[in-house]
Amino acid sequence: MAPVRDLYEILGVGRDATDDEIRRAYRVLAREHHPDVSGDPAAEERFKEIAGAYEILSDPDKRARYDTFGAANGPAGAGFADLSEIFEMFFGGSGIGGFGTTRRRGARGRARRGEDLAVRLHISFGDAAFGLRRDVQIERLTVCETCLGNGAQPGTAPIACRTCGGIGEVQSARRSVFGTLMTSAPCSTCDGTGQEIPDKCETCFGSGRVRMPADVALEIPAGVSDGMELRVSGSGHAGVAGGPAGDLYVHLEVEPSDSFERRSQDLYAVLDITITQATLGADVTVPGLEGHETIHVEPGTPSGTVVRLKGKGVPNLQRRGRGDLFVTLHVVTPTDLSKQERKLLQQLAELRGEAKTAEATLRRPEY
Ligand SMILES: [Zn+2]
Ligand SMILES: [Zn+2]
What we know:
four-stranded mixed β-sheet; 8 helices; rod-shaped
């Protein structure tokens, strides 16, 4: 553990230093110890200390808190175990982020969550039923590798905005009939971020982020349907100044099937059967959602009969089990009879006493 050091000591200023003195001390030290400039392997640690000390001491509120509670050798002597504990108190746990890829927080108030991103994904009917893993290619704003997201040219660092003193707001007093009104508005110089970047990074032009292609691995669960949206948290645009990344929303477009109509987890289909299959009975094998299914046609099946194949529908997204497959049997009357077939059918009609000219009665339909 690093020995506890006083934040004023880190910046080499006295406890009574003015804001200006603190800012100047920080700028000199930051240039000297920025890891991209300094060859010293300890520079990164040192730079983090400097940046952390500056973040606290340049903020009047934080400085006051630090003066009261924070200094190990200071008046209150709160006795922190190490510097990171002090930083943790001020930066809410994530500390002054490391360099490179991981957590990193910029000046107060500057950290902002990345924007959400949305893509459409076209998947097949079968993939929607059984789920799939798929990589989607997206373009998203990623933390700039040149400046590591702070927007400043390597060797330089953002400074507290000179217009608002780093607060991000400008206050103005206005006299009115009610007395003096204090109003505050976001600082227009720094856009409310409290920071100014004197030397902007040439890669990202100071934004701290660059647009990059990326592959995102998606796990699409079984049983999704057309129009559903999946959220992949943290796969959207990178945050600003160490803020968390946004989310990626994947809008699913499921291709319709030629064989099935889907209603929730159940599937509906029609099977054409011949008059002899309907009359004599048959076992008809068809491609199902998954492998082949055999549909048993009872002898004497009327057209419109529905056969239910239990558990041959779509898996349930939420719970176990699957929907059913309902097949409506449709008896097709042949129109392309050969001479011989026609003769056989005529013989059948004669055997059954079914004359071409006949009398019969109507019956009321049943629904
Ligand atoms: Zn950059
Ligand atoms: Zn400002």
